[in-house]
Structures are given as structure tokens and as C-alpha cells.
Amino acid sequence: MESKTTEGLLNFIEKSPSCFHAVKTIGDRLKEEGFLPLSEKQRWDLKRGNSYYVTRNDSSLIAFTIPAKAPEGFRIFASHSDSPSFKIKEEPEITAEKHYLKLNVEGYGGMLCAPWFDRPLSVAGRVVVKEGEEYVSKLVNIDRDLLMIPSLAIHMNREANKGYAYNLQKDMLPLYGEASDSGSFFEEVARWAGVLREEILGHDLFLYNRMKGTVWGARQEFVSSGRLDDLQCAYAGLEGYLMAEREKTTAVYCVFDNEEVGSATKQGAESTFLQDVLMRIVKGLQWDYEEYLIQLARSFMISADNAHAVHPNYGDCADPVHRPCLNGGIVIKFNANQKYCTDGVSAAMFKDLCKKAGVACQLFVNRSDVAGGSTLGNIANTKVAMNTVDIGLPQLAMHSPYETAGVKDTEALILAAKEFFD
Ligand code: ZN
């Protein structure tokens, strides 16, 4: 069971090297399951008993099932499609030493820099071309080892192992080719996108780690891959969502872009995307605004974003009492300052849900002298207020291009999500 789930997870991640690919992968799966695609640009003719999905910017997605009978509020599961990386700048080619060709990139989100060195990388995302009067996104994944960020040799920096402050503009530019290859980068991008170089009018392209996911450890208990944060939650939520009955409440599954840069974009968790979709559902059911508010008050949201497991070499960095570990179950996150929006009520509801689903849960709070991270829940709550719990699957090396998690935990979240939507 676990190995099949992990295989499914790694397959999902491999098909999703960028936020755009993640949304395409999820959309394709939903379509297979009979979900009908909607466009924000057209009127929605919604029918009870049907399932739909809609995307925004090709990088965020919301799916929903309207039950045949009058729903008792919304059940919402939210995760994110993006991960920290490096974005290709406009006109990125830079010649170095009259011999090399490297690419100009800028940081996206709060990445760990060191693990990006000395491993094969490539580029994925989208290019924008004009078809008639429409600007159309074309997905592109250069599916071969294309780039590398080579380390400086120890002989040229004897202090390298004593800590290093990375300068993104100087240290992190990937080597692409030789000076004679000048002008070829976008030729290559165009070739993989199936368009002509001169047709590309815009692009959103990111570096990704080419190293495939692997299952390892004494009893194959660990899984490592790029983008476990947050595709592990996106995958588990989707599987549980599709397995569930989805008959009592309006079942909503969302994946938002831009969590790693604060969510305040037109398609992020702080946008009106979720609110717009929920209001259109209510309108589709011929309900008024008061009924929308009643539905919200009866709703519950799971904000699922991976959590920190206690690190075997850095136990002192975790709270002295709460020490989630890999394969220990789903992590409920708490923060007094509401970076995580779990409160007494939502914690109680989620613990009860885990009990019903027969899965273990663990608790996370930051050390009181460490700032910690933030996530989707409290941000989404400012637009659509409802009981919300922040949870995640325990992992190590968060924001590395190769992260580590436990093979059992994905299954736990699938079962919890199924229970949630049943
Ligand atoms: Zn995350």
C-alpha cells in the first residue's frame, strides 16, 4: 500500500516540475474522474450532483463537487503548487571569460542555496505566444540535463566549510553552454514548447532539480524528492478527495500558487479566487448572500502545507516538547501569533477527524525563540472566514531542491482527506 502510494506520489511530482505543470497534472486527473472544466471568462451553468474545476493563471486550481441534496456548508482542502526555485530573467544569457555561457536568474521564495550546487538542473514553466487575438500559455519542460551550478573548489576558498553567505546574483548563476552557443537558450525552450523562437512573447520559467525521487533507508521508510513541499499534500489531498463520497457538503479542493512569496497575487491564497468560486457556486444554487454567509459559517478548511520533523542532527532546533518525526503521522501546527491559524476549536475538529480516519497525528509548535514559517490558512481566512486548521506532513530539509519525508505519512493524509470529504 505504502509503496504504491509513494510510487504514485513520485510519479505525480515527476510530471509536475513547475507550478504550471502541477496544475495541468491535477486538471488531467480531475478530467479523467469526470470533473468538468470551467472558465472564469464564461458564465457557469452549474448542476447539482456534478463536479467541476477551474484554473487561474494556469498555476492555481479549484475543484468542487455540488452534492445532489442541499449542502451543509463547504469542506475545503487547500495546498500550494509552487516551491522555492530560481526564475529565468528576461534575456538571460551572459557570456563569462569569453568562453562560457551562463544564465541570469533571480531567487523565487526562500530556498536553501547549498543543495542547488553540483547537480543536474533543467528549466520548466510556460511561454506565452499569440494565437489569433489570444495570448496562449504553452507548457515547457526541457526534459534533459541542461544546467549545473558548479561549486568553487575548496582550494580556492579554504573557508568554504566554515559557513558561507550566498550572493544570489554572483554565486547562483547556472552554467548553460559555451560562448559559441550564444542565442540558443530560447531556441531550445521554443523547440521543447513546440513553437518558434520568434513566437515567444513572454515566459515564466524556473530551474528544477533533475534528480528523480527515491525511496531509501534500512527498510525503505524514507522518500526524497524535489517539491515534496507542497506536492506531497497536494497529491494526498487529491487522492483522498477523489476516493470520498463528497455527498453532504460542497467539497472543494484547491491548490494555490505563490505561497512561497507571500500569496498576495491574483492567483494566490490572498486573492479573491476562492471567494469568487464559492460565491459563484452559491449563485449557481440560486441562493442569496445571506445563505452564502450561512454556508461559510458551517464550513471547515484544512490548510495543508508540509511541516518540520525534528532533525536527527539538530534536535536543539525544535520545541523541547513537540517533536514530530517522519512516519509519525499528520502534523497539526500551532502558533500563538497566528502564522498558523489552528485554534482550540479547529484542533479539536481535526484530531477527531484523524481518530475517525484511524490515522495518527502529531503536534508542532516553533521554539519560542525562533520565528518559523507561515502558510496559507490565515491568509485565505482574511477573504473567506471559516474554522481552519493548519496541518502538514513531517519532512526534513524543507526548501532544499531535494527534500525528505516518510513513506507512511502520505497514506495517513489520503485517509484523513477521504474521511473529511465523506
Ligand atoms: Zn509549503
Throw out a few tags for this protein.
Aminopeptidase i, Domain 2, globular, 9-stranded mixed β-sheet, binds zinc ion, 5-stranded mixed β-sheet, 26% helix, alpha/beta, 422 residues, 2 domains
Q: What is the total domain count?
A: 2
Total number of strands: 20
Largest sheet: 9 strands, mixed
Q: How many individual helices?
A: 10
Q: What's the N-to-C terminus distance?
A: 21 Å
Instruction: Specify the overall morphology.
Output: globular
Instruction: Give the uncertain stretches in residue-range form.
Output: none
Backbone structural class:
alpha/beta
| CATH classification, class level of the largest domain | Alpha Beta
What would your notes on this structure say?
The chain has 422 residues and is α/β, with parallel strands linked by helices. It has 2 domains: 2-83 and 226-421, Zn peptidases (Aminopeptidase), CATH 3.40.630; 85-209, Aminopeptidase i, Domain 2 (Roll). It has 10 helices and 20 strands. It has helices spanning 2-14, 19-32, 168-171, 185-193, 228-243, 273-284, 289-297, 344-357, 377-381, 407-421; strands at residues 36-38, 51-56, 60-65, 74-80, 85-96, 100-108, 121-131, 134-141, 175-178, 202-209, 214-216, 222-225, 250-256, 300-304, 307-308, 330-334, 361-365, 387-392, 394-396, 403-406. A 9-stranded mixed β-sheet has the order 1-2-3-13-4-14-18-16-17, with helices on both faces. The protein has a 5-stranded mixed β-sheet with strand order 11-12-20-19-15. Helix 1 packs across helix 10 and helix 5 packs across helix 10. The chain is globular, with a radius of gyration of 22 Å. The structure holds zinc ion. Zinc ion is lined by residues 80, 229-230, 259, 305-306.
